[in-house]
Specification:
By secondary structure, this protein is an alpha+beta fold. The chain has helices spanning about 5-20, 25-30, 35-45, 50-60, 65-70, 75-80, 85-100, 110-115, 120-135, 140-150, 160-170, 180-190, 210-215, 270-280, 330-340; strands at about 230-240, 245-250, 260, 265, 285-295, 300-310, 315-320. About 45% of the residues lie in helices and about 15% in strands.
């Protein structure tokens, strides 16, 4: 266990550093519990600068949990475009409904209550409780895990564990403000003690066991990479008198609830005849181009076709202007870009 003096020095340095170096984000300027909750949902596995651009738009449209709870799911999916991991938008919608129905429209402050919300786990519950309500709760994300592993020269675990949570609990127990310390610790891991640590300017240099032993570049332990599964998507842009055919993906699985041009998903490569057969398209498909779309767990090879057809009632038809408001995943925007460039 860390000595009391080391713990107190660490929390003091983090709080002091954060007060001077906190990045300007809209949820810090306009700081309220619902806004903080939304920012946490948005920030999971998404570049923070992209979140900063989208957060004001989402809060303008949904300033309260009730406003989102009463809205159509397609509205939040439309605003979520470009953030990826669209299931989080569905979780946020469900969370807004639970807050409205079970918590009188107010974001709960206790971790046990926060864990009742859709898509909220131990980290998110701790982050909202401590940062939005200044409650003395620990948080551990990838950035915090990295910092703590280096401070104690702890190897062997690439992901947060009971060891990491134990260290975070020790530190938050002696900090002046859980809100400042926890947010500062995450920020410190993102900007100073990052994957390529800036040890020369680090205020925790004297407290860092990894720096003392020159092991910081090896910590935390790197996860062994697994080969991404390769799959094939065949997207067909069907056009009828200036309108384009679209279908909605199912309620589960990849890009659930989002819209796409008629598409065949396959684990194996298909020829053009098989694509036409599966989509039941009458007319010759013209191949326009292809691209690779990488996700965390798979590599998707997209091939884009076009075909002029009669209006088919199986699909929904939209003008080019209407597509701006349609909830489309980034991959589908790429499909349309290929079509426009052809």
């Amino acid at each position: 266990m860390a000595t009391q003096s080391k713990k107190k020095l660490i929390v003091h340095e983090i709080e002091s550093w954060f007060s001077e170096n906190a990045r300007a984000f809209p949820w810090r300027t306009d700081d309220f519990p619902w806004g903080r909750l939304v920012s946490e949902f948005m920030s999971q596995q998404t570049q923070i600068d992209r979140v900063a651009l989208k957060w004001p738009l989402i809060l303008e449209r949904f300033p309260t949990p009730k406003s989102l709870a009463q809205s159509n799911e397609q509205n939040i999916l439309s605003l979520w475009q470009g953030l990826g991991y669209y299931r989080r938008a569905k979780f946020l919608k469900k969370t807004a409904e639970i807050i409205t129905e079970d918590f009188a429209g107010e974001v709960p402050s206790d971790v046990d209550d926060l864990l009742k919300l859709s898509g909220v786990g131990k980290y998110t519950a701790g982050a909202i409780s401590s940062i939005a309500f200044d409650k003395r709760e620990a948080i551990v994300d990838a950035n915090v895990h990295r910092v703590l592993c280096r401070l104690w020269n702890h190897a062997g675990e690439w992901a947060p564990s009971s060891w990491t949570w134990g260290k975070a609990e020790q530190l938050v127990s002696v900090c002046s403000s859980p809100k400042v310390f926890n947010e500062g610790l995450m920020e410190f891991g993102a900007t100073v003690c990052s994957k390529s640590p800036k040890c020369e300017t680090c205020p925790l240099q004297g407290q860092c066991d990894a720096f003392a032993k020159n092991t910081q570049s090896m910590l935390p332990t790197v996860k062994k990479k697994t080969k991404k599964k390769k799959v094939f998507h065949y997207a067909v842009v069907l056009e009828h008198q200036g309108e384009f055919a679209f279908e909605q993906r199912g309620d589960t699985g990849l890009w659930s609830g989002m819209w796409q041009v008629p598409t065949v998903d396959s684990d194996v490569e298909l020829d053009v005849n098989e694509i036409s057969k599966q989509l039941n398209v009458r007319g010759k498909l013209k191949m326009l181009g292809s691209f690779e779309h990488m996700l965390s767990h798979r590599a998707i090879s997209f091939t884009v076709f076009s075909c002029k057809v009669g209006k088919d009632s199986r699909f929904n038809w939209f003008s080019a202007e209407a597509l701006e408001e349609l909830p489309l995943a980034t991959a589908q925007r790429k499909v349309l870009a290929v079509h426009c460039a052809a």
